[in-house]
Each structure stands twice: as structure tokens, then as C-alpha cells.
Amino acid sequence: MAVASRVANRWEIMKIIVVGAGLAGLTAAYKIRQDGHEPVVLEARNRVGGRTWSAALGNGQITERGGEYVFPTEFAIRRLSAEVEVPILTHNVRYARRTVNGKHLTLLELNAVTDRLLATLSEMLADGVANASVDDVFRATVGADFYAHPAYRRMSTSLAGDAAEISAEAALMHESSAAGGYVEDGGRFLGGNQSLGITLARLLGPAVRLECPISAIDQSKAGVQVTLRDGSTLEGDAAVLAVPLPILRSLTLGFTLPEAQQAALDHRSMGTAAKLGVPVSAVDADTALQNADHAWWSWQSMSVDGEQRIPALSCFAGGPSTLAALDTASGPDRWVTELKRMRPELVIDQDVLLTDWTNDEWTLGCYSAPTLDWRPEDASAFDSAAGVVAIAGEHTGLQQSLNGAVESGYRAANAIAAIA
Predict the structure, then answer these.
(1) Distance between CA atoms of residues 33 and 359, nearest Å
(2) What is the CA radius of gyration of the chain?
(3) pLDDT per residue over 249-262, tens digit each?
(4) Which of 293, 310, 311, 242 lies closest to 24, judged by CA?
(5) 366 backbone dihedrals φ, ψ, rounded to 5°
(6) Residues facing residue 238 across a β-bridge
(7) pLDDT of 159-168, one tens digit each?
(8) Segments in 95-225 forming alpha helices (H)
(9) Which of 93, 146, 165, 416 is the most buried (most CB within 10 A)?
């Protein structure tokens, strides 16, 4: 079908189909409802939250199987959580200053190396250097042994991919943890990070429909038609596609995306990562420990009392080579062995919980990364809808984080409002 035209009556209530009940889709639906329209949210899973997924360990402690950190300068998600009254707690973890080989950077040292990296990148861009990778900038700034630098070890872990294939301009200038100036106080939601999505879904009520995966979407002057995997169809006036990048690529679109949007999607790859939740009865006092050989780390968050640490470790491993080294495909055993080697005082209390996002059928990875073909104009490609279909998700913006998902949901809802 041809791309739909603008809705004639700006004041009519529109039925907006939102595909995906992760933070991006739920935020979009929440804003669409506030704008006076009728959202219908189709979620493939039997739960809401998408890549925010909280679960209880055997000792009762909540662990995050997906998205973890809310940084101090991530204002969109903080405003949303305040509006719907979901409190944020501090992790009180040295997120960007992890211990590597017995030492960690001071804040002054972190700021100094960050300034040097940005200066190097700025010089490269001024000299017309194209497609500079994260590795390129670290090598030029730190030297041939940059792989061992704690700032590189942290960033290469968080990128969840091959830093030699990831755009330095996108990663270094726009990363969530550094946007607006670095502050060492990452947060988490009371009751688990999934609680924000659960709260939004509760406010949306029966508008959220679980176990409704789609296979195709089309649009015409009459609106949109969504085809579900069971062969049924649903029609609406407009739609928001808020599914992970690999799932978006798998959908049959009956229309052509604008050139800028297609290019922006083509300039992203999907990262791979795994999480390990570890209930503990004893552990050393280091709250943020980075593995020196591979891209994984472990941390122990602050309890709600602001004094004690929770009786659990959280671990994150990023990138295919790290997951292979830890053999996450076979289960948690090798990772647990490596964790005990890194933390000899560790005493595990009950079963660990492994989540490998590579194997999740509704994400096929953890979150996206900007490839070397990334361009600054990609950042604004999704400000407008493609006809009457807006696209949301962390892959449509600069921040591959919980906040990036929320920002994209607001952006998609605003794009729909512009055609209403």
C-alpha cells in the first residue's frame, strides 16, 4: 500500500496501535493516552517490560536480568518515574571507575582521560578522518597497550560488541553514562527496574494485550493494518513500532521507510550480552570489579537502608568473544568458576540465575551499537513518522539504555501527535 496521508480531522480521537510493551512502547502508549488518543499495545511476551526484567533469587533478593542503570543526567526516565511515582534508589557503585588489577581510577583521572579521548576524536573529525572506531581513538590517545586501560575495559564491556567496529563519534560523545557530564551515582528502581514498565501497564489497563506477536504491518490512506502471527488482523489510525532492532528487521513492512530512517537502521548492529545474578552469604568488599582479560564485570549494589550491601552480586558480560570465553551457551558453570577466581572470598547462597540475551527470541541480542557507518544525522531520523507509523526503541537514538528507550517512546508519541 502507499504511505498514508495526514489525518483530516485534527481533533478526532485516533486509535494508535503500539507494537511492543518494553519501556519504549509503554512510554509511547502512556503519552498517546495523555494526548487524548486510544492506544492498543500488542506485546509478544507473556509479560511487560521487554529488556527490563526483574526476578527474585533464591534468597529473595531482586536481580535484574536485563537493563540495570539509570544515570543522574538521564532526565526523561527520571521525570517519568517521578510522574508515575516509582522511586529510584542508588546503586552506589563505581560504574565507570571499576577495579582492574587491584586499582581503580580516581574521578580526576577518569575526567582527564575522557577529555583526552574527546580531544583526539575532535582532531580526527577536523582532519576528515572517517569511520573512526572506539579502538582507533583509544589507540591514538592511550597507546598500543590501550586494551589494558581501565577506561577502555569499562567501555568495551558496556558496548557489548567489537569496539573495533563501533563508531567512536557516537559512543564517546553521546553515551548515556557520560551525557551532560559524568556523575558517579547510577540508580535503580525500587522493587526492580521492571516495576516502571509494570506501573505504566497498570495505568494503561486493558489497552495492553500480551502474547500478541505480529508478523507484518501495512498502511494506506485509511490508516494501518497489523497482521498478527496467528493470521488475525487489527486496524488503527496510526502505529508505533517499538520492537528491538532484529525483530523490526524481521517484520514484513508493506511500505517503504524514508531513506534517512532506513540508513539509520542500516548503520546499527545488535550487541550480545549475558547477565548473572548471584545470591551470596559472603563476598569481598569491592563493589565494582572488572575482569582484566575479558569484557565482563561484577558489582554489589547498596541496600534500601543506605548502609548495607544487598546479599547478591550482579554480573554483566558483553560481546560474542566474552560470552564464548564464559561458555554461557552451556550454562553458568564456567562463569561461576571465573567469578570465584576473581573473588576468592565469595560464598554463593543457593542457585545463580543466568540470562543470555543472545538466545531470547524476542530480542536476539541485548541492545544496539552504532557501526562505523553511523552519521550524526542518524540521530534525528526518527523525529517524524513514516507516513502514520512512528518507530521507537533504543536503536532509534543515541543512548542504548533504559533512558534511551523512554526518550524514543516520547519522540514516537510526538511524531504521532504531529499527524493527528
Answers:
(1) 34
(2) 21
(3) 999 999 999 999 99
(4) 242
(5) -100, -65
(6) 16
(7) 999 999 999 9
(8) 107-126, 134-142, 150-159, 168-174, 194-204
(9) 416
